[in-house]
Design brief:
Blueprint: E1 6-11, E2 15-24, E3 27-37, E4 43-44, E5 47-48, H1 51-64, E6 71-75, E7 82-89, H2 93-103, E8 115-123, E9 132-141, H3 142-154, E10 158-163, H4 165-174, H5 181-185, E11 191-197, E12 202-208, E13 211-218, H6 223-233, H7 237-247, H8 261-291, E14 299-303, H9 312-320, E15 324-326, E16 332-335, H10 341-356
Parallel strand pairs: 1-6, 3-16, 6-10, 11-14, 14-15
Antiparallel strand pairs: 1-2, 2-3, 4-5, 7-9, 8-9, 11-12, 12-13
Helix pairs in contact: 1-3, 4-10, 6-7, 6-8
Bound molecules: adenosine-5'-triphosphate (ATP) and magnesium ion (MG).
């Protein structure tokens, strides 16, 4: 019997990523995937300003790759999406649903009439309080959710789910039931950070023993570097990005002596942007650590197009004084599409959160 397949889509500020596939027996099957540039100025901080343009870009992806998925899964992001982590008495999903109907408002500083709510149980066996569970509450602005539903309508597809990147990344790392948590604890890594560095946003996700403990979207990404290059070198933003992609490399001052003048000068143009991103990330990490009992980050995994800036892994590593690695998959993944497997591996940095969205019961 042919398994149900889904098309998972992540509408980024810079690139739309789509992965067609399914999940079963702790393995992801990718039938095809594609990454295309988002229509210019049509997406802003997760909100879609031109539904028609975005839908037709996705239609094009479907046509070109002969995608035949019945149902759609979309990642929704942006600073308008609010998440809160709360402790609730251990309950079934239905009971939590009921609790939220009456109590949700106390957790959110906004009028929830304008939001759609959802939740995910993060941790049922909280060590010190046996009758409580940690629940991640998500509130998506109605208008934004509506834009995503309209995209599904235009594509003539049923919406299976709207997910948030933090949840998708978690599922990519650990599967649905945390089955893969051992991958990390076996290596002695209990606490780590995942950074999804996009064009305009950076997702910061912190895990402890296989559980998502903290998640936040920063409104700053790789495009900030383009702005600095553009100002310093007096080129337009398109050319600034080109320079970044072709020649950009970031390194510490002690390496400057071994570098040609041009790369030092370019590195110095980019540095304020990179540093301010790192400082913002550090602020969140500090905030998390100040409240956690473990109090130490052991590793950082990076993904998103912006993570590919040459030298960035090492630069982040020396700032936080921990090893930095590109996020790879921990679930097994089989690719059955027409592109080469090497290409998928090379481009996986863009696909982490959209691939995780495929992981479902
Ligand atoms: N080799 C590279 N060096 C530096 N930056 C790169 C490189 N390759 C891609 N980028 C940057 O990555 C960004 C795009 O990454 P990505 O597709 O993950 O963003 P997005 O998901 O569309 O944005 P957002 O997450 O903010 O919505 C662009 O800003 C691009 O310039
Ligand atoms: Mg992104």
């Amino acid at each position: 019997m042919l398994k149900k397949t889904f098309l998972a889509v992540d509408i980024g500020n810079k690139n739309i990523k789509a992965v067609w596939g399914c999940y079963g027996k702790q393995a992801i099957t990718v039938l095809e995937y594609d990454i295309v540039k988002s229509p210019d100025n049509m997406i802003n901080d997760g909100k879609i300003t031109d539904i028609e343009a975005v839908a037709s870009t996705i239609k094009e992806i479907i046509k070109r790759n002969r995608i035949k998925a019945g149902k759609l899964i979309m990642n929704i992001s942006g600073t308008g999406v609010i998440t809160r982590e709360v402790q609730l008495p251990k309950s079934t999903d239905e009971e939590i649903d009921n609790i939220l109907k009456y109590d949700a408002q106390q957790y959110f500083p906004v009028d929830l009439d304008n939001y759609v709510m959802d939740f995910r149980v993060l941790d049922e066996s909280s060590a010190n309080s046996d009758n409580m569970c940690r629940v991640l509450l998500v509130a998506v602005p109605l208008k934004q959710a509506d834009e995503y539903m309209k995209i599904a309508e235009k594509l003539n597809m049923d919406m299976e789910a709207i997910d948030i990147p933090a949840n998708s990344i978690t599922k990519l790392l650990f599967g649905i039931d945390n089955t893969k948590a051992a991958c990390f604890t076996d290596k002695g890594i209990e606490e780590f950070v995942v950074l999804d560095i996009g064009a305009d946003t950076t997702g910061v996700y912190i895990y402890h023993k296989g559980k998502l403990m903290f998640n936040r979207i920063l409104l700053m990404g790789s495009r900030e570097i383009d702005r600095y290059i553009s100002n310093n070198m007096e080129v337009d933003s398109e050319n600034a990005e080109k320079i970044k992609l072709e020649r950009g490399r970031i390194f510490n001052e002690d390496e400057e002596l071994n570098e040609p003048f041009e790369s030092v000068s370019l590195c110095n143009s980019m540095k304020p942007a990179v540093n301010s991103l790192i400082i913002d990330i550090n602020r969140l990490v500090d905030f998390y650590i100040s409240r956690s009992s473990f109090g130490r980050i052991e590793k950082i995994y990076i993904c998103g197009g912006g993570s590919q800036l040459q030298g960035l892994d090492k630069y982040i590593g020396s700032y936080f004084n921990v090893p930095v690695e590109f996020l790879h998959k921990f679930l097994s993944l089989e690719y059955k599409g027409k592109k080469s497997k090497d290409k998928l591996v090379a481009e996986f940095v863009y696909l982490a959160n959209v691939t995780g969205a495929l992981v479902r019961e």
